[in-house]
Design a protein that fits this description.
The structure holds 2 protein chains of 2 kinds. Chain A is mainly alpha-helical. Chain A has 2 domains: 134 residues, no CATH class; 230 residues, MetI-like fold. Chain A has 21 helices and 3 strands. Chain B is of the alpha+beta class. Chain B has 2 domains: 84 residues, M1 Pyruvate Kinase, Domain 3, CATH 2.40.33; 240 residues, MetI-like fold. Chain B contains 14 helices and 8 strands. In chain B, helix 13 runs antiparallel to helix 14. The chains are: A mainly alpha, B alpha+beta. At the A-B interface, helix 1, helix 12, helix 13, helix 14 and helix 16 of A face helix 2, helix 4, helix 5, helix 6 and helix 8 of B.
Chain lengths: 448, 420
């Protein structure tokens, strides 16, 4: 009898042992995946808040008796005039100038402030020939109180984060931190600071970790994603309808079909090169807005970036939309044809509405891919630093992930915390989009 | 009222039907072409055709710019000049001392704009050379003393693909440092992702209950939805310090001492190892999800037959399911490799800048994709050697991923088990 065979029992025990060891391994593989997700999120949260010691270069109390927040534009302007008269021109260049930095030195007030407010009689005078008081007037005519306040705080008070700690250190070693901060920075101001806050989201980007913000990048992302969404939606759904509803089975349509699957595997940085050579360079006249009378940009604009991203997400969008269209049973089409509808009537009134939830899910998922894409936009030519918020398809651009990349690359450790705050903001939007996609799919998908 | 409703729309319809019936009896049934339908059909075809245009765009753009790169001659200032004036016939040149060394076969440009190009036939001593005048389409002309000399470095496919340095600005055109870094990062990534991804796939398809699977799978897929710049941040600020704390601790002896002696300078702030590990994390969901689908697609009957013969679950998995799902699993791994090869942000942030021919994964190593992104960031000027060289690298990368994709298609076709 086999069951009495000793060697069999021995072998069976060994086989079962291998079985349970490997079962543990397979389970651990999943556990590692989960741990990695946990580590990733905890690490980013850990980086994004904690104690910070602020040290002011000039204490605000020595500048004015009233809090700086209550001062008017003119009073803030006077502070700049007293403390840094020679820097006023630099501020005009960084925040208001319409000409390139090379031309700035010789440019007239009219050229620099084209379309902005300035006394007409100064229009033909070079900016550098104006008195400091006059330059100051240009500055506060074109800036509101908040922007002036930012200038003063950023350049005169100059609060800098002298040292920052991570969240877990701050929670578990707060006494040590307080002691250390008091020893090293007797004048410093120790605060628990979350780098992600409302001010951070609504301020434009600056070169200091304590005053910088995400608004510039958020606007850039918003403009690019809007244009990408419209372009990719039309082209992608159009292509999917063609392939599923119109195309006959010939070599050309099979080639298109295979081609779309191959395109999905091309690295995104290569799409960036296509965008650089085609949209930014060859079609530069259009993408820079030169044909529409915009003059102060080259082809590296919001429009070029958006078109590049649209081409990039097209394959994903088409495949998703095709699946959604395929899920619509042919009885619906046949019913429609039987009623005498034309092909387009059938598609537009029966098939598309039935497939819409599926298509929208695909669109949202591809949008969330587009929001996180960085490499192709770097190649198309995102600006490394832009002082002016993007305000249309022909602006220079930066987007949130590129801003994160820039901040990550700076040697200053506090910028790593700023980057972490931006990452949380971006991941929040992405999770939100994914949640919407799942809800759409669950609520509106009909099974036939 | 009924009469009214019935009579109003019916009359024209009845008329139309009657007319149609008359027509059809005369001509037989004909298809009526509708203009709107044709226009829309045409537009939809264009939408589909854009994908073909994109591929053509890739080939034309990458190909033409890369060809331009391979036709470049980069002129390096030799820091030498013609010491004694020469006329148009002389083939023996006397040069000033110092500067770059010349070799037989070198192409030399005379004058700031390379008015004449000559080729060195023989070198008599440090300062005297015998040359062929007026080559590469230039005319032999007289040159005054102190005419500056430039050494021409031609880009060739051989130089591009042979071992050496990558610095197109100073005439070094070997892409090998970039390819080596790419392959090292990819290898590390695959070593991380294949065991974890495949293990997770087997667990999810064979071991986990339906309830656990429904929770675990979407959670693991969260990893796939995180933008790569976040992974880059994670690699630089978490994984690299972690590696440094493990391998750079000089106070400890034993294994660490051994590692230290192997890897020399220890883990640097940017390195291939941490980038590779994190790229591995990035491609875990790709491998896990496709492998799981193909394991689940193996018919129940095969499992049951195997269990019926007394095999354990592990034996069934290893000897029945994995061979049956092999085509899907290898396609998943190749897709993973292809993603790792093209991954940009992680390597750009964590693997370091500067092409560096090294085998040490703890040293900065720039990959092809990372180099493309770093060089093209900001205002790269159109038509410069940097611009063209980036497209040559892009073409190489494109062909590599295309090849991988092709292999994966073939594997799926050839080794797919069909169960009727």
């Amino acid at each position: 009898m086999i069951n009495d065979d000793k060697s069999f029992k021995k072998r069976l025990a060994r086989r079962n042992m291998y079985g349970s060891i490997s079962a543990t391994f397979f389970f651990v593989a999943n556990l590692i995946g989960l741990l990695l997700i946990a580590a990733l999120f905890l690490h980013i949260i850990n980086q994004s808040m904690g104690y910070v010691v602020y040290v002011n270069r000039v204490e605000p109390e020595t500048l004015s008796e009233r809090p700086l927040e209550d001062l008017s534009e003119e009073e803030l302007g006077q502070l700049i005039l007293q403390n840094q008269p020679a820097r006023i021109r630099v501020y005009i260049r960084d925040y208001l100038s319409r000409v390139s930095n090379d031309e700035f030195a010789e440019a007239t007030v009219g050229a620099i402030l084209r379309g902005r407010e300035y006394p007409p009689e100064w229009g033909n005078i070079p900016l550098r020939d104006l008195e400091h008081e006059q330059q100051l007037e240009l500055l506060y005519r074109n800036m509101n109180q908040r922007q002036m306040l930012n200038l003063v705080v950023e350049n005169i008070v100059q609060p800098t984060a002298a040292k920052s700690w991570r969240l877990f250190e701050s929670l578990f070693h707060s006494d040590d931190i307080k002691q250390q901060a008091a020893e090293e920075f007797p004048n410093g101001d120790l605060k628990f600071h979350s780098w992600l806050n409302w001010d951070f989201l609504t301020r434009s980007v600056t070169s200091s970790a304590t005053t910088t913000g995400l608004k510039t990048a958020l606007l850039g992302s918003f403009w690019i994603i809007s244009i990408t969404a419209v372009t990719a939606l039309i082209l992608g759904v159009g292509a999917a309808i063609y392939l599923e509803e119109y195309a006959s089975d010939n070599w050309l349509n099979r080639a298109i079909e295979i081609n779309i699957r191959n395109l999905a595997a091309v690295p995104s940085v290569i799409y960036g090169m296509l965008g650089l050579a085609v949209f930014a360079r060859a079609l530069g006249e259009i993408t820079s807005g030169a044909v529409f009378g915009v003059t102060d940009s080259n082809g590296r604009t919001v429009l070029s970036a958006a078109l590049t991203l649209a081409i990039l997400i097209l394959p994903i969008l088409i495949v998703n939309a095709q699946e959604a269209l395929r899920a619509v049973p042919s009885s619906i089409r046949e019913g429609s044809y039987g009623m005498g509808a034309t092909r387009w009537q059938t598609v537009s009134r029966q098939v598309l509405p039935a497939a819409l939830p599926g298509i929208m899910t695909g669109v949202i998922l591809s949008m969330s891919r587009a929001i996180g894409e960085t490499a192709p936009l770097l190649v198309v030519g995102a600006s490394t630093f832009i002082g002016i918020d993007p305000n249309g398809p022909f602006s220079k651009f930066t987007v949130v992930p590129i801003q994160i990349y820039e901040w990550t690359n700076l040697p200053d450790q506090t910028f790593k915390s700023v980057a972490a705050a931006a990452i949380i903001a971006m991941l929040f939007v992405l999770l939100l989009l994914n949640a919407i996609a799942i809800i759409l799919r669950n609520r509106y998908s009909r099974s036939f | 009222m009924l009469e009214q409703a019935a009579s109003l729309p019916r009359k024209p319809l009845a008329d139309r039907l009657k007319r149609t019936a008359e027509k059809t009896t005369k001509q037989g049934l004909t298809k009526k072409t509708r203009l709107l339908d044709r226009i829309i059909g045409g537009f939809l075809f264009i939408c589909g055709f854009i994908s073909i245009l994109t591929t053509v765009g890739f080939i034309v753009v990458l190909g033409s710019e890369a060809l331009r790169f391979f036709a470049t001659t980069e002129w390096l200032n030799a820091n030498k000049n013609v010491a004694v004036a020469v006329d148009a016939e002389q083939t023996q040149l006397t040069l000033s001392s110092g500067g770059l060394k010349l070799q037989i076969g070198d192409i030399i440009g005379l004058g700031i704009n390379r008015e004449e190009v000559i080729e060195i036939i023989d070198i008599i001593d440090e300062q005297t050379i015998i040359v062929q005048r007026g080559v590469e389409g230039t005319q032999a002309i007289p040159h005054p003393a102190r005419t500056p000399i430039y050494i021409g470095k031609e880009v060739t496919l051989t130089k591009y693909l042979s071992s050496g340095q990558w610095a197109p600005q100073i005439g070094n055109f070997s892409v090998m440092p970039l390819i080596s870094a790419t392959l090292r990062v990819t290898l590390i990534a695959i070593l991380v992702a294949v065991p974890i991804g495949l293990g997770a796939a087997i667990y999810l398809s064979e071991y986990a209950s339906e309830k656990v699977r429904k929770i675990l799978k979407p959670v693991l897929e969260v990893l796939a939805g995180i933008p790569t710049v976040v992974y880059g941040y994670f690699a630089l600020t978490f994984v690299t310090p972690l590696l440094q704390s493990i391998f750079n601790d000089t106070s400890r002896s034993g294994l660490n001492g051994l590692l230290q002696s192997i890897f020399g300078s220890g883990v640097q702030n940017t390195n291939a190892a941490s980038a590779g590990l994190v790229v591995g994390i990035l491609i875990i969901p790709t491998i896990a999800s496709i492998s799981e689908d193909s394991i689940r697609a193996v018919p129940r009957a095969l499992r049951e037959a195997s269990y019926g013969l007394g095999a354990t679950r592990l034996e069934t998995t290893l000897r029945v399911l994995l061979p049956a799902a092999l085509s899907g699993i290898s396609a998943a791994i190749i897709l993973g490799i292809s993603r790792a090869v093209g991954e940009t942000m992680i390597v750009l942030i964590a693997a370091g800048a500067g092409p560096n021919l090294t085998a040490n994964n703890f040293e900065p190593s720039e990959t092809m994709a990372g180099h493309i992104a770093r060089i093209s960031t900001g205002d790269i000027s159109f038509g410069s050697i940097d611009y063209n060289s980036v497209f040559a690298i892009g073409l190489t990368l494109f062909l590599m991923t295309l090849l991988l994709n092709f292999i994966s298609t073939i594997i799926t076709r050839r080794f797919r088990e069909v169960y009727a």
